[in-house]
Structure prediction request, 538 residues.
Amino acid sequence: MPERPSLKWVTVKRNELGVQLLSRHVHSQVFKNAAFPPPDRSYIQIARDHLTAHGLDPSQGSVLPNVSFTLPPLQGKNLDEHFHRLGAAAAQPWLGLARDFASTSLPPKPDYWSLQAGWTKYVHKDDGSSYHIPVDHPDDAVLSFDIEGLPNCHPYAIMACAVSGDAWYAWISPWLLGESEDPEHLIPFGNPDTHRVVVGHNVSHDRSRIADEYSLKGTKSRFIDTMSLHVAVKGISSHQRPAWKKHRKTKETEEERRVEAIAAVENLLQESEGLDQEGVDETKKEELRKLRSDMEESLPFLQADEDSVDEASSKRWEDLTSGNSLADVARLHCDIDMDKDIRDDFLVLSREDILGNIQDYLNYCGNDVYVTHAVFSRVLPAFLKACPSPVSFAGILTMGSSFLTVNESWEKYIENAEKTYRELEESVKGRLVQLAREAKELMVGDRWKGDVWLEQLDWTPKVAKESRGVVREQVCGLAIPFRFGIYPTCRAPSWANEVNPGHKIRNGSKRSVRIRFNPTHSKPSSLSCSISHSTAHL
Prediction:
């Protein structure tokens, strides 16, 4: 007689493999008017055999409460339509504003910036004339925006530039102009109930200098970060960055050599013109003509941009991505080379120095705004193509407009968090040191053999050397005390030297031993966390 099913199988809905499903009431609401044909019996048997092979019993699955309640009605025929409509409602009207701005041409940048505190609007008319007027705040719904500050003096902005499809704007701090001794000036953006899009590169840095964003009621301004959009479509991971930097340096070196070669060929061509004169042997003349002809033929190939003849399919991955700085992103997406040398002035110069050349610095800030819009015009369509769901764009808007409320205990929280991090870090380092000690001891009798992890290390013996009382540490930085003139003569594996390269202890004095560990030195079962590199001081 077959066994009566347990209560949990009677009260909950499960599929053929024992996976608990939605209750019938909830299922009928989520999958309205949807029919799911039963899977092929052979597929079910394959799945059961797979579970059995791994010692998994479907009847032992966990049981969750058989929840049944009434859901809000679906906004569409199915879940896909439901979330698409919710995302569209959350993304608009900012998505429409952003799309229009990406295809908008900008007015010319002002030739001269008016030196007055607060916002100044610069309008360029169709007949070529222009004018500027002071305003309380920008009156456009979409802006490309950037600020500059003196981080070594204070965290507030000293100037800012913005541009829309109709006008340029510049904001200057009263502190910079000497009209106020208080540097704590935030930038006003106007009515918080106006639907507004602000585009910037690493725009959260700029947003923190806007006065309206500190309102607890919130605003209807939304911030779009071109750096985040770039990362989403053509960004690189931290592990790829070293290879990308190396490739970029190689290309820069090759470009420098190409330019030098072009200059050398052009100089030789100019010099050869004066040699083809009377009195020169005909054989020499012929050789000069041939050499000159060869150089003239090679010059176009040297002058040609290699990217223009390179197909995208043959490019390396390093050529299809870049770092996250505005200069790198602009070079990748817009083929714009930016001169960022002036940026260092904001780190070293005083208020008086900046004010003395304020036109140059406002031009620099305005150029960043212009380039940011150029990048935005490329990365926004690419992002919307890669992530077409409006939910993705709505998520960007939500994350970009959030803020964290804090009180007087915030500094204490940061202090405690840092202390906890250091304690955990030291604990991990201590465990790594212990693992290294244990692994080193396995060299005696070749006990490391047969271990699939330790066999990957170089166990070639290395013997300590002595020179003028200086002894190289031999035991993977294992803090062996060198006392009473007794030095260890034991051998250590080569990987110990790689872990702690070149460290020395002089005359038995105490010194800090810095160790760099590779994850191969520890087994997964020994540590619950994944560590790429770590350092420890013994």
Summary: The longest helix spans residues 241-273. DSSP finds 17 helices and 14 strands in the chain. Confidence is low (pLDDT under 50) at residues 1-10, 470-489, 501-538. The two ends are 69 Å apart (CA to CA).
